[in-house]
Design brief:
Blueprint: H1 3-15, H2 18-25, H3 29-43, E1 48-51, E2 54-57, H4 59-86, E3 91-97, H5 106-116, E4 120-126, H6 129-137, E5 143-147, E6 158-173, E7 183-185, H7 186-190, E8 194-196, H8 203-213, H9 218-221, E9 224-225, H10 229-237, E10 242-246, E11 257-263, E12 267-276, H11 282-294, H12 298-306
Helix pairs in contact: 1-2, 1-4, 5-11
Pfam families: HTH_1 (PF00126), LysR_substrate (PF03466)
GO cellular component, one term: protein-DNA complex
Keywords: DNA-binding, Transcription, Transcription regulation
Length: 314
């Protein structure tokens, strides 16, 4: 039984006449009569009464036609759903990200993606760089935003593009001696209690701090360890010490705080977006299109891996 058989039966029920039904279908009457007869043999019941007044569904025909309408509706819906999925308009996107990406660029990226793809289910996971890299390699994520390029087993199979640059900045309370200064030196920082991120979550940042202050610096060993950059800013606002973190913190100013540049200028690892090239879905392609639209200079890097990115999965 094919979908056309269902359409033929529904047309005949609507027009109550073989000739009129055939004309509406754009076929000759004899083929229609044969197809309906074949359908009745396959079903094992007479579906239409042929009378002088017209052709009318039997009880069996009425029951059959009710299901046939629903079946054709489902077929049409399936075609629509398939087309939308192929364009990346439905499905899911699993994204792993470090907390500081919520300052930049994720707010604009996720906002735009949600407006353009409201039926895509977003599965968002905040996690450290090492964890998101492992999850991406294992196929548990579609895309990850990390500090620095992914490393470790399987990382060579990932495509990675830089989506942001960072350097070290300091944040203090409005009443702190360094408030109002454009910059603070390393020597000045050695004299004050510090607030830093945990080494297991952001090892690259901690490595940069150790290079700046010295590997066994008592300044670092005595620092307050904050869970993330939001806590760094919050503790600094409370006067606990000088918070040190990425320049993305400037995107989240808090009343009663002051940001200073750190001298010498200390670059931090780039913010990097990574994904598996061979396993990208239409939804991932759509997400990459939003990334290229919101992050300057990313388009050329994506083209290097993918060619022109489209949202149809090709």
């Amino acid at each position: 039984m094919e979908a056309r058989h269902l359409r033929y039966a529904l047309a005949l029920a609507e027009h109550e006449h073989f000739g009129r039904a055939a004309a509406s279908l754009g076929i000759a009457q004899p083929p229609l009569s044969k197809q309906i007869a074949d359908l009745e043999r396959e079903v094992g019941a007479r579906l239409f009464d042929r009378t002088r007044q017209g052709v009318f569904p039997t009880a069996a025909g009425t029951a059959f036609l009710s299901r046939a309408r629903r079946a054709l509706d489902e077929i049409a819906a399936a075609s629509v759903d398939a087309a939308r999925a192929a364009r990346g308009e439905t499905g899911r996107l699993r994204l792993g990200f470090i907390a500081s990406a919520l300052l930049e660029p994720l707010p604009d990226v996720l906002g735009r993606f949600g407006r353009e793809r409201p039926d895509v289910r977003l599965e968002l996971h905040e996690m450290a760089t090492s964890r998101s890299t492992a999850a991406l390699v294992a196929g548990e994520l579609d895309v990850a935003i990390t500090l620095g390029r992914p490393r470790g087993a399987g990382a060579e199979r990932l495509a990675s593009v830089t989506i942001g640059h960072d350097h070290l900045v300091a944040v203090v309370s409005g009443g702190h001696p360094y408030a109002g200064q454009k910059s603070v030196s390393v020597d000045q920082l050695r004299r004050r209690p510090l607030i830093v991120a945990p080494g297991e979550d952001e090892p690259a940042v901690v490595a940069g701090l150790r290079a700046l202050f010295g590997k066994d610096s008592p300044t670092l060993s005595g620092a307050t360890v904050a869970r993330d950059i939001h806590t760094i800013v919050g503790l600094a606002a409370c006067g606990v010490g000088v918070g040190l973190g990425p320049s993305r913190m400037l995107a989240a100013p808090r009343p009663g705080t002051w940001f200073c540049e750190v001298t010498p200028h200390t670059p931090l690892p780039d913010l990097v977006l990574s994904f598996a090239v061979k396993e990208r879905s239409p939804v991932l392609n759509a997400f990459l299109d939003v990334i290229r639209g919101n992050c300057p200079d990313v388009g050329a890097a994506l083209d290097h891996f993918l060619g022109p990115v489209s949202t149809d999965g090709h």
